[in-house]
Amino acid sequence: MEQIILDYEKLIYSIMKYFKDYPHKDDLYQVGCIGLIKAYNNYNSTYDCKFSTYAYQYILGEMRKIVREDKGIKISRNISRLYQEIEFTSNYLEQRYMRKPTTKEIADVLSIDEYLVIEAINSTNTLLDIDEVYDNNFHSSNDEVFMLKEELKKLSSQELDLISKRYMEDLTQKEVATLLGMSQVQVSRKEHKVLEKLKKQLI
To answer: What pLDDT score was predicted for residue 143?
Structure first.
């Protein structure tokens, strides 16, 4: 195992560059090694890809997990509770207006920012989860990964930049909004639109 780590240490360090703002570099390296070992234990020479390509998915997945957990990005109980309130409010307003309410109307009733409503809905939607596509065992989703990469090539430069920052660099919507000169609501809406587009193409 030590030799495997030495042979692919450059790959681990190259993937660590995606998380240049993450302060715990030693932790990133350690989980990168764990990802490499998992890839080594699961790799089969009959797979239609090089080991480095196969291992990349495992290493990236492990690093993203630790960064995500450290930032507390996983859907929290607060988000789940908020979603329940949104559902209740949405049903109430639908009966009152005889139509589906807008996210702005729901936000006004709950006295919260509209982007929180959008984010809570997106978090619990059964949309295509790009994280899962990249973090799944490569041998069981090889076709999915290939198709996803092909569809990503079709996105506009702004769409691709947004998705890359959200899912590869693991930035929050607020951070992406600042970098792209947009509002958080605009980022949330565009992200939702892109994910829906990808989902339709990949189903």
So the answer is: 52
